[in-house]
Amino acid sequence: MKDKRIAELFERHKVLSKKELDSRYGVYTETYETIVRYEGALAADMVKTLIVPAALEYTANLAETIKSIESINKTKATAVRNILKDVASNMEKAADETTKLETALKGASTDKIRKIMADLREAVDALEGLVPAEIWPLPSYAEMLFIS
Hints:
Layout: H1 4-12, H2 18-73, H3 78-104, H4 110-130, H5 141-144
């Protein structure tokens, strides 16, 4: 819509005047920015109220498992410790990205918001693969695709 050739084509064929085209562009841009901000706010809310609590529950379960294994076997539960590290690392990344997102929602460009949302999604997707289904609060991709 901002390409001069397109504006001339629309005007020449009496589809839309330059002013009408600019007006539509403004409306579409505002709508897009509003939607991105709503999605960002929803993502931040979901991480704080659903994802992080589920990850915390799983880390508590893992910590208890490590404690049990090590008290019984008197050996390090290395595999479980590695899972715990992965969960904790991705949970921290999700929390950090959520903080960045909430700050960006106060006035940053939609491009910056979308970049942060993509980084947040990476951490949440990793957590989805680590946290057991019975703890995970949302449907998995497989469940949404009816493959369960």
